[in-house]
């Protein structure tokens, strides 16, 4: 099968590609060479930038699968580190592989004294995501032998670099929290991934954090929900930066920056601010819904809508359902959860949201769980980054391992000035 494109009465044939889930694409790699035209696709919403075997997403039907396993199955049976292994290595680990991976993560949890010094350069109120991306990139400076910017060499050390990225970004996240609170760092112990994070966040010099199974389980679930999500803005950024030959840590650092924006990972903070302000004003959310219908980007109903899901976000369904259970198990109640539920019900009945197929996304309820775990709002996007690290690692690996890979280099439609003569400054009016 091929696709026929007719331009100025001339016909051009392009091959058609089909993915393993039946996704169809026109292979337009020779389009410009053959026709002199490019496709204009602002935001790349209709452009397949790569072939990937990591995650399948069908936004129309609310399907999300990592390496063939549905997000529902993983949520019900797996935990974050196992899913991270699956995403990075392509298969669920055997018992021995799982143990070895866990040990490698524990062995690489510590942030060396020299790197801890970096924090001294940041004010206490520095934005957490700015600190996270800086220190993630500092990993490339600290481990130059793992970050040579030579794919062949970097891939030989991939297992170690991947474990360092996953384990240390989690540790750096906890250190950022301690720094912003003016508390001394708590160093990692020989603990499972999530318990170690909670220890580094909440232990005090004379009072160790005591693991609460419900808290560990909830954290596991929420990190797993964020573990990968196809070619989203930050993952595409990781691939784009990686395509230049850049090492894993530098590529991830770029992804962290992409994630920080309010339309992407930063949305979980914006949702919480929105719910809090509805609560503080004693409103029931009607005013917010009405303002969101105005069409302005700065007034959107945060946590609603998605670039690819047009039915429902399966992650939001799992997290939304978990919310009540987590709060109940922790013996907590949160008025913001009631506001979120009312807001969801009202929006789902409102023609503006229904006709545009706008549903709650992963960020709508995740903040309520983070809050119940004692994680402050300014740390929410850092939590998203810790969760998304496996996806970034797996996508960087695909780029680095592809012998036919090219540097990402889109084209543009130039709409600026046409040629004109230079005017000396004295003659300019
Ligand atoms: N509130 C009100 N109106 C909205 C919203 C919203 N949250 N989202 C989209 N719309 C409107 C938009 O104004 C447009 O209306 P019209 O057709 O009249 O111009 C229509 O719905 C279609 O929207 P779009 O701009 O085509 O949607 P998009 O695919 O460009 O944007 C989005 C997707 C996620 C950026 C957007 O829905 C949004 O800004 N949502 C709020 C921020 C948010 O929750 N982001 C988290 C995304 S999930 C986590 C992640 O993976 O990063």
Bound molecules: carboxymethyl coenzyme *A
CATH topology of the largest domain: Citrate Synthase, domain 1
Helix content: 40-55%
Give the topology string: H per helix, E per strand.
EEEHEEEHHHHHHHHHHHHHHHHHH
Gyration radius from CA atoms, angstroms: 23 Å
Please state the second-level CATH architecture of the largest domain: Orthogonal Bundle
Which regions are unreliable across 5 or more consecutive residues at pLDDT < 50? none
Main sheet: strand order: 1-2-3
Largest sheet: 3 strands, antiparallel
How many domain regions?
A: 3
Distance between the termini: 60 Å
How would you sum up the global shape? globular
> Total helix count?
19
Quantity of strands, as a count:
6
Beta-strand content bin: 5-15%
Structural class: mainly alpha
What is the CATH class name of the largest domain?
Answer: Mainly Alpha
Average of per-residue pLDDT values? 95
| CATH superfamily membership of the largest domain | Citrate Synthase, domain 1
What does the secondary structure layout of this molecule look like, with pairings?
Layout: E1 2-7, E2 10-18, E3 24-26, H1 31-35, E4 55-58, E5 63-66, E6 69-70, H2 71-77, H3 80-89, H4 95-107, H5 113-116, H6 128-142, H7 151-156, H8 158-181, H9 193-202, H10 213-225, H11 233-242, H12 248-259, H13 267-280, H14 286-292, H15 314-329, H16 335-349, H17 351-355, H18 362-372, H19 380-401
Antiparallel strand pairs: 1-2, 2-3, 4-5, 5-6
Helix pairs in contact: 3-10, 3-19, 4-8, 6-8, 6-12, 8-9, 8-19, 10-15, 10-18, 10-19, 11-12, 11-19, 12-19, 13-16, 13-18, 15-18
Bound molecules: carboxymethyl coenzyme *A.
């Amino acid at each position: 099968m091929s696709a026929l494109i007719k331009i100025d009465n001339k016909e051009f044939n392009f091959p058609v590609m089909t993915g393993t889930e039946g996704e169809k694409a026109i292979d337009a790699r020779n389009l410009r060479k053959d026709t002199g035209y490019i496709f204009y696709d602002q935001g790349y919403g209709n452009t397949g930038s790569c072939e990937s075997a990591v995650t399948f997403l069908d936004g129309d039907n609310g399907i999300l699968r990592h390496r063939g396993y549905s997000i529902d199955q993983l949520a019900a049976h797996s935990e974050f580190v196992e899913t991270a292994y699956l995403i990075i290595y392509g298969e669920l680990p055997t018992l021995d592989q799982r143990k070895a991976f866990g040990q490698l993560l524990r062995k690489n949890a510590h942030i060396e004294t020299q790197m801890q010094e970096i924090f001294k350069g940041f004010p206490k109120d520095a934005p957490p995501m700015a600190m996270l991306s800086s220190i993630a990139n500092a990993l490339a400076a600290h481990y130059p032998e793992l970050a040579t910017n030579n794919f062949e060499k970097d891939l030989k050390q991939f297992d170690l670099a991947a474990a360092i990225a996953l384990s240390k970004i989690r540790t750096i996240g906890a250190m950022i929290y301690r720094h912003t609170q003016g508390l001394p760092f708590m160093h990692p112990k020989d603990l499972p991934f999530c318990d170690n994070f909670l220890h580094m966040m909440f232990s005090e010099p004379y009072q160790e954090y005591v693991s609460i199974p419900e808290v560990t389980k909830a954290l596991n679930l929420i990190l797993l929900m964020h573990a990968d999500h196809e070619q989203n803005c930050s993952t595409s950024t990781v691939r784009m930066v990686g395509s230049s030959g850049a090492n894993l840590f530098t590529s991830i650092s770029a992804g962290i920056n992409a994630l920080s924006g309010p339309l992407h990972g930063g949305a979980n903070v914006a949702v919480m601010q929105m719910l809090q302000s509805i609560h503080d004003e004693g409103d029931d959310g009607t005013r917010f819904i009405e303002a969101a219908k105005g069409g302005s980007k700065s007034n959107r109903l945060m946590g609603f809508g998605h670039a690819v899901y047009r039915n429902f976000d399966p992650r939001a369904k799992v997290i939304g359902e978990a919310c009540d259970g987590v709060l109940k198990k922790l013996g907590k109640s949160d008025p913001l959860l009631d506001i979120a539920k009312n807001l969801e019900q009202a929006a789902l009945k409102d023609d503006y949201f229904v006709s545009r197929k706008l549903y709650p996304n992963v960020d709508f309820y995740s903040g309520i769980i983070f809050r119940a775990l004692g994680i402050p709002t300014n740390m929410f996007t850092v939590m998203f980054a810790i969760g998304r690290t496996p996806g970034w690692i797996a996508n960087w690996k695909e780029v680095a391992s592809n012998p036919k890979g090219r540097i990402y280099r889109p084209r543009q439609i130039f709409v600026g000035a046409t040629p004109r003569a230079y005017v000396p400054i004295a003659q300019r009016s």
